[in-house]
Design a protein that fits this description.
Elements lengths: L6 E3 L4 H11 L3 E4 L5 H6 L7 E4 L9 E4 L3 E5 L4 H6 L1 H6 L1 H8 L4 H4 L4 H5 L12 H7 L27 H8 L2 E6 L2 E6 H4 L15 E7 L5 E8 L10 E9 L16 E9 L6 E2 L1 H7 L6 H14 L10 H19 L1
Helix pairs in contact: 11-12, 12-13
């Protein structure tokens, strides 16, 4: 498979980058590592006429801040650099851990954190070469008028398959976008939409500049990933868990010190729907209670009930639903 023809631009500043995309219009697209865009272009799934590289923009290649005050990660930081950065390893180790599960070392050397957060949705029917898709008739996501996963549906069910998206939604991260119209900050939980085609709250002329992580005081997070092989594969289920403890309360009647109580919690499932699925019922099973095995089991059961994977990725979808329970248990036990 060969790339189609396109114009390649290498701006030196953010202002120049957003001006180029504004002038080129909807047929332009930003690229960083290109590990998602270029294969999609070879399969004729995306066909930008102008490709604008942001890999060398200095502001997009740095980490600032730290856990106590919150950190900012440039969107063009490679996954390898994110994994190895001392601030991320020390204060946000769960991000480094989740990033380490993405693809292979060689691709992590090129792929970026921003690219993983803007990853195209995936599907067994969509992720084939052009000739294969043409032979069965194209799908709703690209060039066709039917979803082959759910033929009676008017909605595309391609799956959000990023490993970092569930984590960012769970911890309450924010994304900063810049365009010629100015800049805006978007919460991760509001950024992703439950539609396999229109899956991001982002305009085509906006550039993701950086990711803002909240201060780490009083909370912890973890991520567990299900896939067929121990490397390379996309997640067919991802579970991000987040818990925050309140202040230790002492009961004057009791002789023992008080117990840490969970004041906030989130369980977010990835790899089973066009957008990350936040399971509020799992959170309610944890909030207001001490962290115990009983609460973990209740939260896992709620995640199992809420999980409704479709048959458009690897493994039998009924088994993936069963695994939502087990991987929620793993994610929470890691925090215990």
């Amino acid at each position: 498979m060969r790339l189609p023809k396109f114009v390649y631009r290498t701006p030196q500043t953010i202002a120049e980058a957003v001006q180029i995309v504004a002038d080129a219009g909807p047929e332009a697209q930003f690229v960083a590592g290109g590990t998602d865009l270029y294969p999609n272009m070879k399969r004729r799934q995306q066909m930008p006429k102008t490709v604008i590289s942001v890999m060398r923009l200095q502001e997009l290649n740095q980490v600032s801040g730290a856990g106590p005050s919150g950190a900012v990660i440039g969107a063009s930081m490679t996954l390898t650099d994110v994994i190895e950065h001392p601030i991320i390893k020390r204060d946000y180790s769960f991000i480094a851990s989740a990033a380490r599960t993405i693809s292979t070392p060689i691709l992590r050397n090129m792929g970026t954190i921003g690219g993983n957060l803007l990853l195209d949705t995936r599907c067994n029917y969509y992720d084939q070469n052009y000739e294969w898709r043409k032979a069965i008739n194209f799908c709703l996501k690209k060039d066709g008028d039917v979803c082959w996963v759910a033929p009676g549906s008017s909605k595309c069910w391609a799956v959000q398959s990023s490993d970092l998206v569930p984590v960012m939604v769970a911890i309450g991260a924010k994304f900063r976008f810049v365009s010629t119209a100015g800049e805006r900050m978007v919460e991760a939980r509001q950024f992703y939409k439950d539609d396999g085609i229109d899956y991001m709250n982002k305009r085509s002329d906006e550039l993701l500049v950086d990711i803002h992580l909240p201060p780490t005081n009083g909370w912890r997070a973890s991520y567990q990933k299900l896939r067929r092989r121990g490397a390379f594969d996309f997640p067919v289920l991802g579970v991000a868990a987040y818990i925050k403890y309140g202040e230790r309360v002492h009961d004057p009647v009791a002789t023992a010190p008080g117990t840490d109580t969970i004041v906030d919690a989130k369980i977010v499932l990835g790899g089973i729907a066009p957008s990350p699925v936040q399971v509020n019922e799992s959170a309610q099973a944890l909030i207001g209670k001490p962290f115990s095995e009983e609460q973990i089991q209740a939260a896992a059961e709620a995640a199992y009930i809420k999980a409704r994977p479709l048959d458009n990725t690897d493994f039998v979808y009924q088994w993936r639903k069963q695994m939502a329970r087990q991987y929620t248990i793993r994610a929470l036990r890691e925090l215990m």
